[in-house]
Amino acid sequence: MPRTPRTFCDSKVYHVILKGIDNQDIFYDDQDRYVFLDNIVESRKKYTYKLLAYCLMNNHVHMVIQVEDFLLSKAIQSLTIRYVYYFNKKYEREGHFVRDRFKSKMIEGKAYFLEVCRYVHRNPEKANINKTENYKWSSYNDYISGKGITSTDLLLHYFNNNITDFIKYTLKAENLDDISNMADFEIINKLTDDQLANIIKNKFKLDSIEDVPIFLKNTTKENVERIVKEVNKIIGTNPRQISRVLRINKKRVYKILGWQKEPVPMYPKVTKREGNHCYHFFLFFMSNYWLFGKFIILY
Q1: Do 22 and 159 fall into the same domain?
Q2: Structural domain total, the chain
Q3: CA dist., res. 18 & res. 98, Å (int)
Q4: Cβ–Cβ contacts within 10 Å for residue 34, how many?
Q5: Mean pLDDT throughout 243-266?
Q6: Sheet with 103-106, edge to edge strand ranges
């Protein structure tokens, strides 16, 4: 099948993920990580992109970059080619170990840009590796120290260059729906619901795939939590899909997995008693504007 062409956005800002083939590690020690960061600097000289955020994990890399559309693929390919050459030479191996087809997602709008950067910086904490502020291999430290390879101007602009506000925002809980969207994006080999259900059937020795949605119905709370955590370890799934396949409330799945609760809505609901009469008249007028228009024309 031909590859789906990449889509581009007006902001020219993208969330890029590089992953090892079969989820194998792409960094074995700190020297590997330093070399990768040096390679970013070298590729950036040639393709003139801005690195707005990054995080180096053991088997994958997050990058938020601002780059001209026609240079996106060239910039990332240049980076990976440089690093693969170094890695193969150091460890006396051959062939690819980073996926040729890197993942890229458009970032448009302030709110989503802020969420993506926070998600990238908090990735080690999500993986239970280290606290965000203590992790050495992310751009969070560049923002705090004012040094490093990251272009910090754009993100800090949204905090009026107030580093305290940046820290508060980064270290607090993310928006639940945006986390889920970005986590889904991270999963390259996604399972279908039927594939996941079949794996669950075999894993827990159920008679048929039809038993999957109901086998947790009459079990204990502790057992439900244990099973959800076990299913979450299956590569290719995500909390939303687990919720669908096991027929468990999405919020409950997030809570079991230690994800934060949904944020308070930005605009509280307005009751009839609290509502503004002018506001209600405006709604009535807009819903019946054609009637008022006809009345004005007649008179």
Answers
A1: yes
A2: 2
A3: 7
A4: 13
A5: 72
A6: 50-56, 60-66, 13-19, 103-106
